[in-house]
Each structure stands twice: as structure tokens, then as C-alpha cells.
Design brief:
Blueprint (H helix, E strand, L loop, with lengths): L3 H15 L13 H5 L3 H15 L5 H4 L5 H11 L1
Helix pairs in contact: 1-5
Length: 80
């Protein structure tokens, strides 16, 4: 079973690769809208990739209002 730290690291790694950022440029407390400069469609794409990676489904109500990687990791971890 993954730890919250492992889940967070995987999310950060996936986002780094998807948005072609230097490794280590994202941290758990980052607001992904601000840090990645993404819009709602790009956010949906990221969430879809995360759902596929973790083999889970994230209902809209669980991610609504979430904007930092740490909280996103907590929501994903609760579904694992």
C-alpha cells in the first residue's frame, strides 16, 4: 500500500512530466493553477491522467476547490 508521501511524489512526478518542467520544480504545497499556469481543461486532463495512473475515479465533488498537490494527494490516497 502506498503512503501519502509516495502518492504525493507520484503526482508531482506525473505533473512535472506532463507539463515538461524541470525535475524537482514542484512541491506538495504548490497551487497547481498558479505554478503550472493551467486552465480548467488542462486541469481535467491532469486529473484524468491521475485517475488512470492510480486506477481510481475522483468524483467532481471531491476535487472541487482543491488547488494544491498535497490536498489532491490526500483525496487520491483516500480512494486507494
Amino acid at each position: 500500500m502506498r503512503t501519502l508521501e509516495q502518492t504525493t511524489r507520484e503526482i508531482l512526478d506525473l505533473a512535472t512530466k506532463q507539463f515538461k518542467l524541470p525535475e524537482g520544480s514542484l512541491s506538495a504545497g504548490d497551487d497547481f493553477y498558479k505554478k503550472l499556469g493551467i486552465d480548467s481543461l488542462q486541469t481535467l486532463d491532469l486529473l484524468s491522467r491521475l485517475e488512470n495512473h492510480f486506477n481510481i475515479e475522483l468524483p467532481d465533488y471531491e476535487v472541487q476547490g482543491v488547488s494544491d498537490f498535497k490536498t489532491l494527494a490526500e483525496r487520491i490516497q483516500a480512494r486507494l
